[in-house]
Amino acid sequence: MSNRITTGGQKLFMTFDITPTSHSLAEYKARGGYSALRKALTEMKPEQVTKEVLASGLLGHGGAAFLAGRKWGVVKLNDGQPHYLCMNADEGEPGTFKDRWFLENTPHLLLESMLIGSYALQGRHSFIYIRGEFDLAYRRMADALEEAYAAGLFGENILGTDFACDLVIYRGAGSYVCGEASAMLTSLEGKKGYPRNRPPRLTVAGLYQKPTVVNNVETLANVPYIVTHGAEGFRKVGTAESPGTQVISVSGHINTPGVYELEYGYPFADFLANECGGMLNGSELKCVVPGGISTKVLTKDDIMPLRMDHHSFVAAGSQLGSQGMIVVAEGTCMVRLLQVMLRFYHHESCGQCTPCREGMGWLERISNRLVAGQGRPEDIDRLYQISRANDGTTICGLGDAAGYATVGILDKYRNEFDYFIEHKKSMFGGRLEVAGIGDNARLVDAAVA
Amino acid sequence: MKHLVPEFETWKKRYPAGFESSLVIPCCRRIQEDRGYVSDEDIADLTEYLGVPRIQIEEVLAFYTQFRRKPIGTWHVQLCHNVSCSMRGAEGLLAHLQGKLGVQPGQTTTDGRFTLSTVECLASCGTAPMLMVNDTYHENLNEAKVDALLAALSAEYQT
Fold first, then answer.
1. Residue A414: what pLDDT?
2. Residue span of the structural domain in which A158 resides
3. What's the gap in Å between the CA of B11 and the closest CA on chain A?
4. Spatial distance between the Cα atoms of A147 and A142, rounded to a whole number of angstroms
5. Which tens digits make up the pLDDT trace of A315-328?
6. Could you tell me if residue B47 is inside a domain?
7. Least CB–CB distance from A94: residue in B21, B29, B84
8. Is residue A396 pLDDT above 50, yes or no?
């Protein structure tokens, strides 16, 4: 992944050239690394760190955009219990690969963030839960951790203070649902990753029933900047409601897919033209899945006037979500696109709650039937009904998300579904690719014939 | 499994006391790395070593997609066919791989070299289409690159 210099405003993270050694401790320190940790440990009380993070307006970057400092503030210091901090590096929302950029390129920034966060929460032991399939990302983090231990940055008496902290990098083993915070903690207890009912909140009863904060990789990565520059310094970047930057991963039918850091408020049209390099093979924009496949699709008309901040995307009926953007060109079959998404949700449903366990299978089977040219007119209503039946009736959001994806596509592209049912074939030859990339249309034509 | 216990013991010093249950997943990962899968004997040994219920280990092995209870081919070819990869040619690559290897997803070639699987999103959408062979990502693929990769793996197998 390249660290392209882009026009997307001020950068907090992509400020250095990526070289074969730029992830090392020596080079991180040469860039000023671990000075925020020193400032926090020697000049600030733990509660001051939390106060500063809250005042910065830092929003979570895992999908829900919750105020990060508020989560930290729930943990009561000096309550006689152990507190745990867990970094959520179980990146698996389709279309999302921005946390990999941090894990592979700035592992020490993440370790420094974990140390400052652990200090603020007065946690003695902390965890990074990293996706099981990640290889380079894991090795970079594991190597960095050993470097940091050897330099006395973990263990007892860190930087000559009373602060002590041990860190475990915990590898998952293949489960999308473990990216949900409570499932992650169940997994971290060595069990199958079932999500848990709230209340109690994880900040009250999390890992082994102790107060636990789970934060996304990028969320925590902002903490050293906030400690160094203060809440006010951080708020100078981005917009009033979405301070700071966002690291967007973008893929699909564009010329230069990749990971880009953008100041909140950057216009989408500029992003598409500049960072994304425009549409692939001269194709036309059809729609965008803005923040992982669990967010509602935005048509060209919806998204082209938008600025990329939370407020604008919510007002347009969707979300920035996990910051994994998939750009879709005209000529793509939305029925088949939904089929791929629903296969995913069915595969990943953990089976704990009935509406999701059954509903995900129903959704996938209906979409398979539609694509096989055997759809029935009532199938569209069924897709809506099953989506609604999942909304809010399950322990975690997986079933809800499948519903949002389904309703989002049906609301905007119902004509393609009607056409498929009536003509027993796709309006666009079942294509998911732009002409010139490959030819998968034959697979669908074969199925229909 | 027993020969791995000294290594497991070194891990414990960075965990809080009483976190034996948490070691189920890392231990299973390490056992699989060593043997290629997790056997009944491993489960029995791990149950005793960690003092956790046997069913907890069985559930973990069944729940997480990366765990295996049986050996597979030398090279585990895992092709992503989620949204972004499908939009950049993964479905064509799957057909190509099936033709080249003569197996369907979930099957192993008769010579035991290749197991083919389809997987959902490996967070590599910007370099789609992609696949993973054992632990290694191979990105920005097309049919020619897949052919070259399979040829290189076959050559490595013979040496």
1. 98
2. 25-235
3. 9
4. 9
5. 999 999 999 999 99
6. yes
7. B84
8. yes
